[in-house]
Amino acid sequence: MLLREEFEKREHDIYRTCAFFSDESKGREHEEEKCDIRTDFQRDRDRIIHSKSFRRLKHKTQVFLSPDDHYRTRLTHTLEVAQIARTIARALRLNEDLTEAIALGHDLGHTPFGHAGERALTKYAKDYIERPFLHNEQSLRVVEKLEKGGKGLNLTWEVRDGIVNHKTSCNPATLEGHIVRMSDKIAYVNHDIDDGIRAGLLTEDLLPKECTDMLGHSTRDRINTLIHAIVTNSMDKERIALPEDVGQAFKELREFMFKDLYTNPVAKSEEVKAETLIGMLFNEYMEHIEKLPQEYIDYIEKGEKKAVVVCDYIAGMTDNYAVTTAKKLFIPKSWQSAE
Q1: pLDDT in tens, 28-56
Q2: What is the CA radius of gyration of the chain?
Q3: Alpha-carbon distances of 60 from 12, 71, 107, 130, 147, rounded to whole Å
Q4: CA separation for the pair 9, 95 (Å, rounded)
Q5: Does the predicted TM-score (pTM) go above 0.85?
Q6: CATH for 3-21+35-260 (1.10.10.60, 1.10.3210.10, 3.30.565.10, 2.60.60.30)
C-alpha cells in the first residue's frame, strides 16, 4: 500500500464522520496523477507554501503600514490563523491538512497596504469592473489563474471553496472551512489588539470591560478562551460555533476594534496616501499597458479585461514594491553627468 493510501485510511480511523476526507475530494479542475506519499490536501498545503504569492505576504500590511519587526504582517497573520485553526481541527477530530491548506491560502489575494489597497482598487476600477475588488475572490483567482505563469496551482475543490468563503459573510461547504473562517477573526482581533497596545493606541483598560471579563484580560487568555469555547461548544456536533454568551462578547470586542483601531486616524493616517498611490498606479497602467510585465500583457491579449489584469498586477505587489514602482514612474530622477 502506498504511503498516501495509508494516510487516507488513517483519516477514516481518526476523524469524525462529519470531517472531509481527502480520498473523497471533488478533485482538481485539471486531473493529474496523485502523489504516492502525500494526500491531496497535504499536497495543496505544500503548493501554497511554495508559491510566490505566499512569499510576498511577508511584505504586505496587516494593520500598520511599514511597521517595525515586531508588528504583524499579512504573512505572520496567516501563520497565526493556521496555528489556531489546526488546533481547533485537531481537538474536534476534523481534517487538519484541509484546514491548514485553507488557512495558508486564505489571504493570498490581499493587496498592498491591507484593506486600504482593496478599497482603492474598488474605487479606481469601478468604471471598468462592475463588482468591487474583494481579497477573498482575488485569493481564489491567484490559485486558479495567476500562479505559475497563468497555470494556477490546480488545488482541490474543497481548499478553493474554503479560501473564497473565509469572510464573515460567506458560508464554506466544509466544517474545516468554517474553522478557518472563525480562526481568521480570532487571530486578527486579538493580535491587532496586541499590535495596538504596542503602538500606544490601546491599553487593556480601554477595551470593553464586559468583553474582557468574559474573554480574558490578555491576548493569550482571550485566544485560549475562544479556542476552548469553540471546541467545547462544537464537540460531537456538525457545526462550528461559539456559545451565545462568548460569541456576543467577541462580537462586541470586534465592533470596538473596528471603531477604535481599524478606523483610528493615527493608525490610518498614511492610508489616504496609500490609496492615492494605488490610484496613480492603476491609471498609469490603464493608459500604458505596455508598462506591465509581459505575462500580464499576454493575459490581455488572450481576452482578459484590461482593468482586471491591471488589478491583478497591483494586488500582487508588496507594499515596498508598490512604493518603489511609483517612485520610478512618477518621481523625476536627478541628473547625473556622464563624466
Answers
A1: 999 999 999 999 999 999 999 999 999 99
A2: 21
A3: 39, 12, 10, 26, 18
A4: 13
A5: yes
A6: 1.10.3210.10
